[in-house]
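Sharing a chain and its predicted structure for anyone who wants a worked example. Both blocks are below, sequence first, tokens second.
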Amino acid sequence: MVDVCLILEGTYPYVVGGVSKWTHALIKNLSHLKFSIVHLYEERKETMKYPIPENVESIIEIDVKNGLGFKFDFRDVLYLIPRAKVYHCLSTGFAGVLGLQIKSALKRPLIVTEHGIYWKELEFGVYEVECGFKIFKSEKEKMNICIARREFLRIFKEIALKCYLKADLVTTVCKYNLEQQLSLIPAQMVEDVKHKFKVIENFIEPEFFNPGGRSTNDEKVVTFIGRVVPIKDVKTFIKAMPLISRRFPNVKFLIVGDLTQDSSYSSECIELADSLGVSDKVKFIGEARALDYLKSTDILVLPSVSEAQPFVILEAIASGIPVVATSVGGIPEILNERGIECGLLFEAGNHGKLAEHVIKLLIDENLWKKFSENAIKKAQKFTLENFIKSYSKIYSEFIKS
């Protein structure tokens, strides 16, 4: 029997992203505990993007499709689940369904952690949830079957509510998420359950605490780092590029992130850049280490439709880089805290405002410097040590009980 069984969807160890980074750091830094991983997938991936720590005893793969559609009952595969002292789901979606059925069958403690909130993302109208699963295969399909989307929203809200009420502990990464979680619970029940909800913020790895400084030459670098997928809305960044380059002809744009997870969307982004006449100013780097590109970045842009507490923003502020990002999820908590503002916010999809903010920071040296200094100060609270201590204590208490 292992200490902890993590239940993930479409992420670690096959996909680079925030949830995977979080998972890898958790396992690696809790080397005194034995872990198993249950990985739920829609399209099986063969290539592991992370080296598996020695304290992972097994990885079990389970398909969430049953030939007729998505699978919402995993009782027929419970015999595959590794026996553990604690079970820990990293979403309330399919992982939540499985976690609840494990808790019912094995009578073991269940922890639920949410990064992106499944049901909230569907409420926003996205067709790809944060874990990478596509409820709808294209924007056109989403528009044609909006009734089905509403049904999926109902299902995922129902699953989330059951997780919130039945889990032994519910953690999340920002205050915004906590407010959304509690908003789903009937008002008369909130006081009885809110004691088991806890915010444990994300962390910044030590190597990012190394300010890169602004470009010393005339060329300015504005960078997006993340998966090139619709939920990150890279197209809004590309639409802003002509406006920015008119004011700063020597500006260079970088798009750093996996181009293969949604190859059709990546192709559309490349075609959009060409049609707008900025293909000579933007480089699509592909999957790469964020640290390598933050060192030469003047401004980080994150135009996502939905986020929780993005690692890339935390890594940027640790590097002293001001951020221009959408005012979604927990992003305002990082960038807009009074007295230590370190970025500018815009509404999702507003490429004009994105361009305006980038231009403002490139023009105003004093504002850039102020935000850079505030960013480094703000970053000091997001330590890996605090993150690991929090989960070490949680696991210890459940294992002992």
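Comments welcome. The longest strand covers residues 2-9.
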